[in-house]
Amino acid sequence: MDHVYKVAKFVEPGETLTASAYEWGLGGKGLNQSVAALRSKADVRHLGAIGRGDKATMLALQKLGFNKPWQVDEATGHAIIQVNKSGENSIVIAPGANRALVPADIEAALSEAKPGDWFLLQNETNGALDAIKFAKKKGLKTCYAAAPFEPQVVAALIEYVDLLSVNEIELSQLEAAMEVPRVAKLVTLGSRGAYYENESGTRSWVSAFPITPIDTTGAGDTFLGAFLAHLDSGETLANCLHWASAAAALQVTRLGAAPVIPTYDEISHFIGSEKK
User: Fold this and answer.
1) Would you say 69 and 54 are in contact if contact means Cβ atoms under 8 Å apart?
2) What is the distance between the alpha carbons of residues 244 and 209, in angstroms, rounded to a whole number?
3) Positions marked active-site
């Protein structure tokens, strides 16, 4: 659950601010990415957990079109998000139910996955190492969004990763912490765009669309989900990057995360209007 507060500036120690607007909605990196992929016409199974008896979140997930999540005896994960007048955000996360998963849950959830399917994971849940090992044994392609950034977790998972997704800050933290192996990377650069780097180090770049941001929450997740959906459908790398950039541009013009991630038709229309 995302609790989003629109503020003039980020709150400082000992300070109390009054928000000019408040929004509640589903969020979290994993869900944002799943929604972005789903709305770019990927066939998605979202694997996650919520607090037992959390009917509001269950209903909201079903409304988005997802399968039922696990229910566990922990509070549903949530985030407190401040969004300043420039559209930048400051976030505190309480992982809650997403840190209550056991290996049997993950194996059961992946039982219907087929070789060649993409398995996408982040650092918001526990059991990541068990999950990615199991996915690789089943012949799945693995994409890892290494955020929230934890060097020791990345170091343990990196050998099983086919595509590493990070922003430029996370990449610099990773490079400072370890020697990064040759692995394909998708790196977002905020208003300067993004690039895909293959295992040989060759980069393909995409520029960001010129827009005025309202809220940057979920922009990177939207980029990744849209990119992966297009990649899975067989589109060229250039088209995947362009599509993902358009999806992220639309996302930052809206307040909130998962509920306002753009649809396939919205992205298509936006790209078409930019060409005129």
Assistant:
1) no
2) 11
3) 221
> Higher confidence at residue 28 or residue 274?
28
Q: What is the pTM of this model?
A: 0.90
How do strand 49-51 and strand 70-72 relate by DSSP bridges? parallel
| Span 29-48+102-275 CATH architecture | 3-Layer(aba) Sandwich (3.40)
Q: Are 160 and 172 in contact (CB under 8 A)?
A: no
Q: Which tokens belong to 200?
A: 């040989």
**Dihedral sign from CA coordinates of 244, 245, 248, 253:** negative
Between the CA of residue 89 and those of 60, 82, 273, what are the distances in Å? 24, 5, 28
Question: Cα–Cα distance between 95 and 28 in angstroms, integer?
Answer: 9
- Token pair, residue 23, equals 């929004």
Question: What is the SS3 assignment for 176?
Answer: helix
Q: Characterize 159-173 residue by residue with b for buried, 16 or more Cβ atoms within 10 angstroms of its Cβ, and e for exposed.
A: ebbebbbbbeebbeb
Per-residue pLDDT tens over the stretch 100-113? 988 888 898 899 89
Q: 42, 228 in Cβ contact below 8 A?
A: yes
Amino acid at 199: E
Domain-by-domain residue ranges, the chain? 29-48+102-275
The SS3 assignment for 119 reads strand
Asked whether the beta carbons of 70 and 53 are under 8 A apart, the reply is no
Higher pLDDT, 4 or 246: 246
